[in-house]
Amino acid sequence: MKALVKYTWTEIKLYLREPMGAFFTLVFPLMMLFLFGSIYGNEPSALFNGYGSVDVSVPAYTAMIIGTTGILGLSITMATYREKGILRRLRVTPLRPQVILIAQVVVMFLMTAAGMLLLILAGKLVYNLRFDGNALNVTLAFVLSSLSFFSLGFVLASIMPNARTAQVVGMVIFYPMLFLSGAGMPLEILPQAVRNLSKFLPLTHVVTLLRGLWTGEVWSQHITEVWVLLAVLAAGVLISAKTFRWE
Amino acid sequence: MNPVISVNEIFKTYGRTRAVDGVSFQVQEGEIFGMVGPNGAGKTTTIECVEGLRAADCGQIKVLGLDPVKQERQLRPLLGIQLQQAHLPDNLKVWEALDLYASFYDRTVDWEQLLVELGLEEKRTAAFRKLSGGQQQRLFIALALINDPQLVFLDELTTGLDPHARHAIWDLVEEVRERGKTVFLTTHYMEEAEQLCDRVAIMDNGKIVALDTPANLINGLGISERVIFRVAGDWDYAGLESHPRVERVECDGDKRVVYGKSNGSVNPATIVTEVVNALTAGGIQFSDLRTEHPDLEDVFLTLTGRQLREERSA
After folding, report:
1. Measured between CB atoms, does B96 come within 8 Å of chain A?
2. What value does the mean pLDDT take over residues B163-188?
């Protein structure tokens, strides 16, 4: 327990010292919010069922942060740790591998949550953000989505030969997904053909689930999303447990 | 007394390469045991099998009475390990690394004290990536000592360090032993092994080709020292060659090398006087006279027919 607490705290400090990770989780989503907020404002719109652009962007950008920390942050960190021999050094201590994985998940989760809270805070203060959902439901959906994407990150880290490849592959997966899933821009403005394709992207289900619960929809309307994310989580945990390598 | 490490006929094959080919040895409590040999001789594979990082294909290993692979979890708290290839996160500070690693163990020494002893006090708040090679190595030694281990492994401890940093690290290793710890190290610097180790195993092509104290290995060569100089003109050295303390004389252009015969003691009397007397008696002009003592490098050369120094620079 002592080791877990200390290791997690160390990883939090390291995360904040790494400008890239902290920028994309904490700063970049806010920049997006303010950029599009200043263009479209947050007036109720028929396109978004009476919600404003910012109202639908906050849950969507939360999905973007989840994708960033899972697909890019976690996989690059773990692949770097393995490639450089940081895991190797940890291996010859009594530290259990589960502790390393749990600490990474906790750190990424806290950072993702911090990114979301900043978005909510900025939305409330600047754009009079509207929230019609149940906070507990949204939190549960956020936890499920995060864990699901973190497990994907571990899989990527395990199957990539080195940190550089993990970074390139992570970007190739993440950036198209960002724009096709409705996380970067609302699905409503994308053509129907793209929207059909987007159903096959896990991030789309995060966006749909978070936006739906945010606007007061209930779980029974999002059975598909929940099953998809649970399946991704289960597959991710299984595959990463099988493929975990110290070096 | 049970040995701290006991290795019995281990083999390890990678594809078609026999990295370790039937190695056996024992390490006794309180000694500095060294494994030397060129790169690729099988030293690191051997030490990693003993550390429990790899499983040998066959053979038996006991470390502090435990099986390093099957009883890894019991063994980890008792060992201090400095790996040949390891890293810490770039932005991790020196004190944070010590504080973090201390939290992994139930029993630890005061890391503040270690920081001072290893000369890292000034670098306390420096990030790992800002440290020099020698400082990083000292930090890894500190991490290897943080749990007050009974047995310390040092794999290629000084590779890539400048001579000054290397000598400083040697002093540290001596201090580790003075604390009553057993040290198992590998190196491809023969000088390092000679300086530090109580006993040395020389490895080549996956086998131990010799194992003894450095002094015994060197004495076993039968050479005490060599006197090297240049002469002008011819010199009939037949008289010197038949001297009881002279092994042989070699010529190379104007260079002459006189090999002294070992009389079995560690510090035999020098043959310089005999050589100079013979030269003066013959009225021979000579210059650049110096003596060289045989070292582990010569032992390696004699055992394998190859020179370690050249292989290293190649």
Report:
1. yes
2. 89
- Contacts with B143 from chain A: Cβ below 8 Å: 89
Nearest CA among A46, A67, A30 for reference residue A149: A67
> Whole-model pTM?
0.86
pLDDT at B314 (0 to 100): 38
What does DSSP say about strands B207-212 and B58-63: parallel, antiparallel, or unpaired? unpaired
CA-nearest residue to B95 within chain A is A10
In chain B, residues with a C-beta closer than 8 Å to the C-beta of A14 are 89, 91-92
Of A2, A6, A92, nearest to B76 by CB-CB distance is A92
What does the alpha-carbon distance between residue A81 and residue B145 come to, in Å, rounded to a whole number?
23
The string of DSSP letters for B28-64 reads -TT-EEEEE-STTSSHHHHHHHHHTSS--SEEEEEET
Q: What percent of chain B has pLDDT over 70?
A: 95
At A112, give phi and psi (nearest 5°): -65, -45
Q: Amino acid letter at A33?
A: L
| pLDDT tens digits, B133-153 | 889 999 999 999 999 999 999
| Chain B hits for A3, Cβ within 8 Å | 103-104
Q: Which residues in A lie closer than 8 A to residue B86 (C-beta atoms)?
A: 85-86, 88-89
3-state secondary structure of B241: helix
Q: What are phi and psi of A58, to 5 degrees?
A: -60, -50
The pair of three-digit structure tokens given for residue B7, joined into one six-digit string: 């290795």
B14 touches chain A (CB under 8 A): no
What is the model's pLDDT at position A245?
86
Tokens representing B197?
């180790």
Q: Which pLDDT tens digit goes with each residue over A128-160?
A: 999 999 999 999 999 999 999 999 999 999 999
> Confidence class of residue B268 from pLDDT cuts 50, 70 and 90?
low
Say whether pLDDT at A161 is over 70: yes
